[in-house]
Amino acid sequence: MRVAIIGGGVAGLAAAYELELARAAGGPGGAVEYTLFEAGDRLGGVVCSEGVNGAVLERGPDSFLTEKPAAAELCRELGLGSELVASNDGARKTYIVVKNRLVALPDGLMFLVPTKLIPTLTTRLFGLGTKIRMGLELLHAPRRPEHGDEAVATLVERHYGMEAVERLADPLLSGIFGGDASQLSARAVLPRLVEMENEYGSLTRGMLAAHRKMRAKAKALNSAGNENRQPGAARGVFTALRGGMQQLVDALQARLEAGRVRLGTAVSGLEPVDGGWMVRARGVAEFYDFVIVATPAWAAAVLLRGVDAELCGELEQIPYSSSITVNLVYDENRLGQLPDGFGFLVPASEGRAMLACTFVHRKFLGRTPVGKVVLRAFLGGVKHEALLAETDGALVGTVRRELKEILGDSVVGLGIEPEHTQVSRWRRAMAQYAVGHLERVGRIGARVAGLPGLRLVGNAYDGIGISDCIRLGRNAARELIAASESARQPVG
User: How many CA atoms lie within 13 A of 213 on its CB side?
Assistant: First the structure.
């Protein structure tokens, strides 16, 4: 069994790790051989960390969702369990920028759904009309599930009004996807809210019911003596690694045989042949029984153009956005006191380059030296692709100016030079789950099923996070191992 993995991001690395486990273990499926092709000079894709004077600076994602277990499970397998760090949720507070002022998200807000009356009534985030509409939302009748897909903005506006879209849905989703709530698919991005609307009508009533079930489940687990709780498990909403998410990449790479990883080697073409695939790289074609394509969808389309035109067309229709991260390191005594919490989100209506800013030293304790502050700004997204052409100095200048305009009244030291700056650009890296995404993924799956030995994995299909990519990569490898073992079983 020979497998080619094309793309050395997290999904490709997870697939290679699963194949390495099978290779080392042997088994009834025969010898497992694999080659990981990566066009760049490093593995990990957008997962990339750097240590600067004791501070962990993340160039890409800084954590993964704790409720999705694949990443934490893999970290423990790799011996990184003691390095898992939970987000400092006791200090978790997020602001929305409204007319250059920070307005805290009201207590009881569960993603986009208000669940507490008094905080909703007293917040400065929404006007009186929106608050009245939020109260009347409790009267919504269940929606028939046969309705087709729609944009997140349409779903939220139907329940809470346009102000909730502009000041809540759009900045939250822009911070996660770098996308636009008027384009993102409700069924793909917020499936739980769609289900709640179908069952309860009111999203608020549905969220309250879900919260009651969660509390009952937690109570039952506590009563049972916590047998199912993982020792030392992180309990924050987010989980990171103490030394940065690069630790995961390094640990995975260390488990792979160096000779099976080809850095700086771009695959130029794929061709299905009897019993497998020919993989062309650097002018040489090699035979593999199976191929796992772990590139962005647009890159997969290029590789498969001569194989299945319809599949390529579907892959090319998955939109992507680019992103920029800017890390600024300050001396806390010179900077001054920041507002409480994890940071703020910036609605598009504010007309700013920044999408969000995280107070990194607050979000994960122990990753920044005492007395230092790390501010991590996000720019780009579907509405600001032109920013990628700006110089590092211009981007840092833009972030510093906007921080001073937003926080300057309370944080007196924003005019001083940062001790360190770091700019990272990620072109066409964030898949956008546009309206109709689930149907498109279904069509892609049907076309792939007609190409034996091919698997597509990555953030373009079924989840954009680190845990999603790990799950998809490992599952693809397991499926191919099972297929190989099945093919070797004697007939009769």
Answer: 6
